[in-house]
Amino acid sequence: MNIFEEKKIKVSEAVLALDLDGTLTNSKKEITENTKAAIDKFIKGGGTVVLASGRPTFGVSPVAKTLGLEKKGGYILAYNGGYFYDCKNDKELFMRELTHEYLPILEEQAKHFGVNLMTYNYDKAYALDIEEQYYMLEIKINNFIRVKVDPLAPQITFPIIKCLMTAPGDHLAKVEKEMKKLWEGKLNIVRSEPYFLEITEVGIDKANTLLNMTNKIGKDTKNLVCCGDGFNDLSMIQAAGIGVAMANAQEKVRQAADYITRSNDDDGIVDVIDNLFYWNR
């Protein structure tokens, strides 16, 4: 029996957490009109939407605006769980900074492993190498201003929530294993894409922040539905009442999910909204 037949959630009690890249947005980084309409229907039915992304807040906010969350209500989880924001009330509900003293060590390790390192401040992305291809991809996705800083640590005096290492996927997979050993118990190290290695404080990931904030906004975590495609979505998919992987998700993510929906290029989120919830009568 399909999980949607075994277990449906009342829409007015549901929290729908949506990863952005590869999940909510298609390959062109756009939200289709069908997906917009389905999300609008979900919100009008009383459902709560959380945009749950590894992107910095500056990169998530335009998506929230496209969906009208500042008027309709909804939340942003940014920096892979380091920040949580109430769109309608324009209020920060949670932030966890990265320990600043770690930055020079991370910079030294980035140079040792031969990878790029970057961090963020509002609309600017500071990096050791601002010509590197995956840094440029991050710039394109979020529309950041490029800022070259080498050495990085002495010039970063503002609060930081997340750092990002970038490199080709095969190499970064090896770096990820080494970094997890080096920072065990101090930092959370996870890839969002094969070429993006996310670095946040220990205990900061999408799952922990979603579970804590779902309770804080008065919802039950058993009614949490999480949709994603990347390695950094794995924790929230495993923690959700129902975890949903996109058809285009990484194999490990698909294996962990309760349900595999259509791809991000085939309105997979519409399929979730149409089939997972039952509507108030």
Automatic annotation (TrEMBL):
Organism: Lachnoanaerobaculum umeaense
Matches recorded under InterPro entries: Cof (IPR000150), HAD-like_sf (IPR036412), HAD-SF_hydro_IIB (IPR006379), HAD_sf (IPR023214)
PANTHER family according to UniProt: HAD SUPERFAMILY HYDROLASE-LIKE, TYPE 3, PHOSPHOSERINE PHOSPHATASE
Gene3D superfamilies linked to this entry: 3.30.1240.10, HAD superfamily/HAD-like (3.40.50.1000)
Name this polypeptide is given: HAD family phosphatase
Gene Ontology, cellular component aspect: cytosol
MF (Gene Ontology): magnesium ion binding; phosphatase activity
